[in-house]
Target: Monoacylglycerol lipase ABHD2
Amino acid sequence: MCVVPPQTERSKIPTMTVLEDEDVQTFGTELPAMFDGMKLAAVAAVLYVIVRCLNLNSPTAAPKIISRNTLLSRYLFKSCPMLSKEYIPPLLWGKSGHLQTALYGKMGRVNSPTPCGLRKFLPMKDGATATFDLFEALGEHSTGDDVTMVICPGIGNHSKKNYIRTFVDYSQRRGYRCAVLNHLGALPDVELTSPRMFTYGCTWEFAAMVGYIKRAFPQTLLVVIGFSLGGNIVCKFLGENRSNQERVLCCVSVCQGYSALRAQETFLQWDQCRRLYNFVLAGNMKKLIQSHRGSLLSMSSSSIGDADLNKLYTATSMMQIDDKIMRKFHGYGSLREYYEKESCVHYIHNVSVPLLLVNSSDDPLIHRSLLAIPGRLAEEMPNVMFALTEHGGHMGFFEGAVVFPQPLTWMDKVILEYTNAICDWEKKQKACQRTRDPDEMNE
Model:
C-alpha cells in the first residue's frame, strides 16, 4: 500500500535540481567570456598606467620664452628658430621627465664621439690643483673670429662624460675652441693636492681656467656654458666681479636650480620622487668623497676629520652630506650660510652680458617654484632670456621619432644656435661702430 505524505510534509524534503544538457552548455560558454573580460580590464588598467606614467597625453609645444622686447631679443627670435619651434621628444618615452633624466644619467648621449684634447693642470693659491681639458676648433668659426667656449659640467662631472663629449665635438666642428673644467675631485685618476673638493658654488677653479684661456689666447672671445650645478657656478662667477665679464660674448645656463637653500628644501619632498633622487645623488657623492678619504685625512690643514667621514655612512640626503662635509671645505659656520653664499641668485642680477637660461617643466630635480627666479629675472633685465620647455627632464632634451633618440639633443642645438646668433650680433655691432666713428670725428 503506497502512502502519499501530505503536501505540507513533502515541501520539507530537499529536492535535487537536474541540469539539462542545454543549461550546462550555456554556463560553460559564459566562463571563457568572463575570463576574457577580466583580461581586457587588466590590459586596460596596465595601458592606463603606462599612458599616465609616460605622460603620453601631454601635447608637444614650443618653449615658453620670457624676455624684454629689445633689439637683441627680436634679433634672437629671428636668428634662433628653435626657440619658437615645437620641441618634439621621442614619442614613446620622451614625454616622461623621469625617463629623460634616467636615460641622460645612464647613457648621457647616443653614440658619443671621443674628441681629442689636452689636459691642463693649474696650481691654486691654497695648494689645490685645478684641471681642465682643452679642445681646439676643427674648423673656422662662421664670423672668422677666435671664440672659446668655457664649459662647467654638472655635479661631480668632467670632460669624459658622454653629454660633454657630444657637445664638445659638435662645437669644435662649428669653429669653437672648448675648455672643459674637471670638477675638483671628480676625476678618478687625479689625486687631490689640498684637503678640499668642488662645492655647489665655489668659482675658484672655473676662474683659474678662464684666466688661463685669456692669457694663452689674447684675441679670443669667450662663450660661458654651465650645465646643472655648473650653471650656478658660471652665473655666480660672472656676477661676482664685473671684470669677469670682460671679453665674454654671452652665457648659457641649462637646468640649474638658482637657489641652493630653496632647492634643498624641495629635495626632502616626495613630489615627483624628488626624495628618491636626493637619496641617489647622496649615494653618488658619498662614493666620490670616500674615494678621496686618504687625501682628505692625510693633510695637516684639513678641516675634515675621521669622525666627519665616518658620518657619511649614515647620510641619506645631500643636505646631510653638505652639512657634515661640504660646507667645512670653506669654513662656513652653518648649512644655511653655505647655501646662501654659494647660490648664484644673489649674484646673477650683476650679469650684463646676454644670458640664456634654460629649464624644463618636467625636470624632477628642479621644483617648479624655483622657476619663478629666472622668470622674474627675464622680465626685469633686458639681457636675459628664459626658455622653459614642457618636456626634457633634467639634462635630457632628447629628440627622436618613436623610440630611438637622435645623437644630438635639442639642448645641444639650441646652445649652438644661440651662441652663433650672439657672435653674429656682436660682429655686426662692431661693424656699425667702425662705420660711425669717422663721421663722429668729422663732426
